[in-house]
Design brief:
This protein has 839 residues and is of the alpha/beta class. It has three domains: 88 residues, no CATH class; 366 residues, 3-Layer(aba) Sandwich (Rossmann fold); 260 residues, Glycogen Phosphorylase B (Rossmann fold). It has a nine-stranded mixed β-sheet with strand order 7-10-11-4-1-12-13-17-18, with helices on both faces. The chain has a six-stranded parallel β-sheet with strand order 21-20-19-22-23-24, with helices on both faces. Helix 25 links the parallel strand 20 and strand 21. The longest helix is centred in the first third of the chain and has 30 residues. 47% of the residues are buried. Bound molecules: 5-bromo-1-(beta-D-glucopyranosyl)pyrimidine-2,4(1H,3H)-dione. The site of 5-bromo-1-(beta-D-glucopyranosyl)pyrimidine-2,4(1H,3H)-dione has 19 residues, from helix 7.
Length: 839
Amino acid sequence: EKAKWPKETVQLWEQLSKKEANDLHTIQKSIVHHVTTTLARAAYNMDNFSAYQAVALSTRDRLISRWNETQGQLSKADPKRVYYLSLEFLLGRSMDNALLNMGLKGVYSQGVEQLGFNMEDVIESEVDAALGNGGLGRLAACYMDSLATLDYPAWGYGLRYNYGIFQQRIVDGYQTEYPDYWLNFDNPWELPRLDISIPIGFGGHVQTTQDEYGVTRHNWIPANSVQAIAYDVPIPGYGTENCNNIRLWRSKPTRVFDLTSFNEGNYEKSVEDATQAEKITSVLYPNDNTMAGKELRLKQQYFWTAASLYDIMRRFKKSMREWSDFPDQVAIQLNDTHPTLAIVELQRLLVDEEMLSWDDAWDIVTRTFAFTNHTVLPEAMEKWSVPMFEYLLPRHLQIIFDINLFFLQKVEKKFPNDRGLLNRMSIIEEAQPQQIRMAHLAVVGSHKVNGVAALHSDLIKKTIFHDFVDYYGEEKFVNKTNGITPRRWLHQANPQLSALITETLGNDRWLKELSQLRGLDKKVENAEFRKKWTAIKRLNKVRLAELIKTRCDVEVSPDALFDIQVKRIHEYKRQFMNILYVIHRYRTIKSMTAAQKASVQPRVVVFGGKAAPGYYIAKLVIKLINSVAAVVNQDPAVGDLLKVVFVPDYNVSVAEIIVPASDISQHISTAGTEASGTSNMKFVLNGGLIIGTMDGANIEILEEIGEDNIFIFGCLADEVEDLRHAQRYRNVPMDPALQGVISAIERGTFDDPKIYQPLISTLTVGKDFYLISADFASYIAANQQVDAAYKDQEEWAKKSIRCTANMGKFSSDRAVKEYADQIWNIKPISVVDEGYLQA
Ligand code: GPU
């Protein structure tokens, strides 16, 4: 079309599509323009939320310019891209992050203040985008930030849920769930692409025919279909023009299909079908580290992977390359097993629709995919029942059985006559009914499999994928230790500390090269610097104390030691052990004389996190925390020596307040159960010390910051099995301190003890699966070391500085570089700034 235009028309377009300038006046004009036109409001009729909307729209204009420029230039260059498939992107708020990454925060703040609003209030009017449960979804968000910042050509693919993770309220101490109405007010951070609409089939049957060469062809005839509509979320890099994309799919009814029912006079059925179609992307499943096995979840997974692959293949086809070049243009990373169907879908499309031979197709598939495993917990392993799967995806089931057959034939060749081995390695589990093991399928269909911290990557090789290591060899199984983005988790969440670091290092290069933080090490002995460092920590604690006052109506002193555990509530994470220790501490204080009390280190113990709605035991832990808080916080014998709070509705934006305010945080999973953990990295980066077990990334944090700056306790991963065995068969008695705590609960010190019986039962001798009793004594000792260390505030400040200084390794920039170099084989490509429109 454009080729037909006269030169002047083309020039006019080019001139007019240059970016607007970013001076104060232009920005203020754009904000006011959005107030008066897009929002149709007047200045005297504005609240913080409408101010937010206007600033967001103005920010969005600038984001979209960058997005357009980046995607246009990338289309021309057509480099190899990585596609990050994740059912969860836990982005949190976007405005502050976008302004900081684009370098516009200063000018926008000035503009907003002059217009009569407080920038912080405006920022806080934004609702979180909470399309994720916890670490896995937040990791995806951090990786998208790093990929954009490092100029990698990368797209994320996910689902646009109408409801993200539920809102948590505490009623009578119990968690109650409310819908997350995040789209109630228009979402300015997405670009609806209503023109991109892809049909996705479900159900039906497979037609088998012979083609003219006598080759058997399979043709899937779905019984019904829905449409996938694209919504694009721009992700700006920090200190670059580059702006990547997350494409989220929304399900819509297929028009043609509805009309058929409608014309047949079946109005009700057509409306029902439409509702069913919309339902696919209506809600995020609120499970973390567990598998629910619901049919709708399987529908979500197929809908999403099929739409994403269609999109990826359409983009590839534009380049007119051979299919054998596909893996040189496309890398697809599977974030856990949730997108494993993409392996089967690509094989199906290549064989059934593009007419490649099975072997050629399978070679392309396995060179394209790589798989990240995030857990070894058995209850989290995805399995789908064969009958349910067959009903929804009959052709995919045939392909899975074929993949499995060819795979097992090769295993049999390498290790003949080992039926046990074939049973263990099979993609199909011989149960009633048969089950598809998605992790096995993901391993077989990928060229690389990685864990998310060194210990975890070792563990998966020794446990769930042991046989696969024997078969494929060690090279296929690699480690990529997780990372976090320092832009959100230090620069944005802790602006004062960020400014002090920049001032001290003389530049802000650390924001792109986090190992530069090491330069802070030489300031450790500088008392003046320590004073500034500690003052900032105190301000952050004041900010958290205010949030606690508002949300929990509890007054806490910022001079106390802030002890924090925020993460999903799960037995393996042992929030239960933490609150049991709090009870122990409370009982100890109660037994003290006034003179003894004078030497107690005051503590504020903060909990936060959601439990899966169906996870009964985890919900009881929340109830116990709240009951203990109710008793302790009003006990005059304790006063300020101990306060306990449960911050409701923990999410990304609350984390941004909590993380910078911790003195100590708890990462206390039973060794071998937490694949990595990422909040541990966030706390230490912000100068918080941690108390933790030898688990996940704690081990690597210890290696980086040194054993003097971390409080480690508890058994090791390779002792866990022996300990479980011992307590089961050798009557190891319960730890006496723990016994005392349990008795106090059973006496009714904290609400009706009947409530807690199921919880206490998990500690029955021989059944304490997470080894709370075995670790309790060393946990108490570690907590005493924390108190003692905190007494020496100068030494504590030194530890705190050393923590931050040595966290360079845990930048998600390092992590994505490793993925890019060692798994995806992609290179950065920088976007050229095509300039601003002259004012
Ligand atoms: N993780 Br599986 C989740 O957040 N959700 C899940 O369903 C599964 C794993 C977490 C791990 O528990 C945590 O240790 C890890 O740091 C994180 O994924 C990112 O890898």
